[in-house]
Amino acid sequence: MTSPLFRTKKVEQSIRDTEEPEHALKKSLSALDLTVFGVGVIIGTGIFVLTGTVAKDNAGPATALAFVVAGVVCALAALCYAEFASTVPVAGSAYTFSYASLGELPAWIIGWDLVLEFALGTAVVAVGWSGYIQSLMENAGWDMPAALGSREGSDVFGFDILAAVLVLVLTGILVLGMKLSARVTTVVVAIKVTVVLVVIIAGAFFITADNYDPFIPDSKPVPAGESLDSPLIQLMFGWAPANFGVMGIFTAASVVFFAFIGFDIVATAAEETRNPQRDMPRGILASLFICTLLYVLVSLVVTGMQHYSELSVDAPLADAFKATGHPWFAGFISFGAAVGLTTVCMILLLGQTRVFFAMSRDGLLPRFFSRVHPRFKTPHRPTILLGVLIAILAGFTPLNELAALVNIGTLFAFVIVAISVIILRRTRPDLHRAFRTPWVPVLPIVSVGASLWLMLNLPAETWVRFGIWMAIGIVVYFLYSRTHSRMATGEDMAPTPPKPPTS
Fold first, then answer.
1. pLDDT at 314 over 80
2. Is the peptide bond before 214 cis (omega within 30 degrees of 0)?
3. Which residues, in sequence order, are CB contacts of 180 under 8 Å at separation 6+?
4. Residues 6+ apart with CB under 8 A from 13
5. SS3 29
6. Largest CA distance in the chain
7. Helix (H) or strand (E) holding 472
8. Which stretches of 272-379 are DSSP H helices?
């Protein structure tokens, strides 16, 4: 690929860029910090918000199987991410990996995709957090005005002020530094895991076996055109499945997949890790394993406590305890969920700012955003800009529709990373790889297939929206990024200037 569109950035140059004083991030994270970050972002919307939605609309009690399916797909991708994050410990995650293997245009496409993914993810989680806060307020006898609450199912148009304020506060924390963010996350994750364990242990005493019958609700095929749930089935057989049945599990997996993007965020922090070659694989894989186990257990307990058709959308865990006559547990879970979702929102915002920062440092976005704060050593400019924009977006976010759009962006990133592992193994076999993805190229190919399968189970409308965003990105690339990138100007070809002497 000799075309300028596919010019690759050498891994060595990417690593040298991290040593430029005015563009260098502070290295302060350990393997434990990364695991906590992963658990902090993975345990969140999938358990506290989306469980009720997919159980009612897609899988019933078999939501637990949907979590297993999504977890397996993520595990395949996690092995690919672990190799890249330990080999190329640079901010940007899949964007940086693509630049080193596929070329500039594919890197731009995946970076543009990640910016959308993390922005919408932050907004969706902020709305879920707001729902739990409003549930707590209702328990205390306070009702949020409809114009300021915008809860799911409300017929009143409003701006979700709680979601917007949360994003702005977390933006400030991220500007102040990664170590502060890690400390806040550690405390909050401890609270969140405690709440999850309470749900599992206490909820197990309130399970009614009849709620599991049927475990996989049945459905019959419907004529093409009456459902857009599975474009793959329409393409192959000329008909689409109804919401439930075995195919409902895969549809549910493509939705709850939103809850498994934590290790993707962990990879964006590679540049701020003290020993990325050792700690990145540990943080990625450990957080994924812990959270998948907890997800399966919680979904089994909640669908056993309350019939899937009666689960709430805004706060399914808390409302399930209310339905069994235990409002104290409901209040405790709402508090824990509200606290826990703050870390999900913060780490998603962290991931987006790091991708944006990496693209800016490469010149694909204005270099103005690639200068770090002189004191805090954080990318404060993109953090503030994106934080304000996402706060506005969170105020108007429809939860159900945008969660699916986040998922397709994440799965697309998984496909690119898996392909990149295969290519970089062939083009740069000399690179030191502290962690090696097993069974290459078989495992990455399986990862690509599994990710594409879940993508094809997403609604057709999601594909349309995703295509529109990608088309806009292509226009931006050819109008600005192609001529302003450091690869185009030749800046990346020059040797890195020596560091200034220290006194």
1. no
2. yes
3. 173
4. 492
5. strand
6. 75
7. helix 460-476
8. 276-305, 316-323, 327-361
Please report the sign of the dihedral spanned by the C-alpha atoms of residue 64, residue 69, residue 74, residue 76. positive
Q: Of 97-106, 115-124, 211-220, 312-321, which one has max mean pLDDT?
A: 97-106
Handedness of CA 92, 271, 41, 417 (dihedral sign): positive
Dihedral sign for Cα atoms in the order 90, 92, 97, 103:
negative
Q: For residue 239, list its beta bridge partners.
A: 223
Q: What would the two tokens of residue 495 be?
A: 């040797």
pLDDT digits (tens, 9 = 90+) for 19-30: 777 777 778 888
Instruction: For residue 421, give every residue at least 6 positions away whose Cβ sits within 8 Å of its Cβ, in sequence order, or none.
Output: 80, 83, 84, 101, 437, 440, 444
Helix (H, G, I), strand (E, B) or coil at 158: coil
Q: Does residue 441 have a cis peptide bond before it, meaning omega lies within 30 degrees of 0?
A: yes
Query: How large is the average pLDDT for residues 101-107?
Result: 92
Token pair 């148009």 in the structure block, residue: 157
Q: Find where tokens 């996350």 sit.
A: 185
Query: Which residue in the block uniquely carries the two structure tokens 């993914």?
Result: 117
380-395 helix and 327-361 helix, angle to the nearest 10 degrees: 130
pTM: 0.77
In whole angstroms, what separates CA 69 from the centre of its chain? 17
If one counts every other C-beta atom within 10 angstroms of the C-beta of residue 501, the result is 5
DSSP state of 223: E
